[in-house]
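In response to reviewer comment 3 from the previous cycle, which asked for concrete evidence that the modeling workflow produces usable outputs, we include below a single protein chain processed end to end. The sequence was submitted unchanged, and the resulting structure tokens are shown without manual editing.
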Amino acid sequence: QVQLVESGGGLVQAGGSLRLSCAASGVIFKINRMGWYRQPPGKQRELVATITSGGSTDYADSVKGRFTISRDGGKNTVYLQMNSLKPEDTAVYYCNADVTTLGGIREFWGRGTQVTVSA
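The workflow returned the following structure tokens.
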């Protein structure tokens, strides 16, 4: 019904940068909120950043000042610019979206993209 496809993960040295993208497609009447979560090895999934349709953003304390979330509403795409990466940022990063689609507002997840930061 709605698919989220992430891209942009990879291996980077500490202090480096990566930009993640997530494109939503399918039966989309409105994307109410999009965001990024991550799951470090052996840990639970955690919020990284979110952005609403109005442009309001929210960040985990651990990434404030280093990561920036943005969206292109016309392309149903959300981005995560990650700067000053640290080894503790290593995780699988998942795209998340609250979408008004057939049947109402539903939550969708992407399959994830691996980000590995070497020391």
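The two ends are 40 Å apart (CA to CA). We consider this sufficient to address the reviewer's concern, and the full set will be provided in the supplementary archive.
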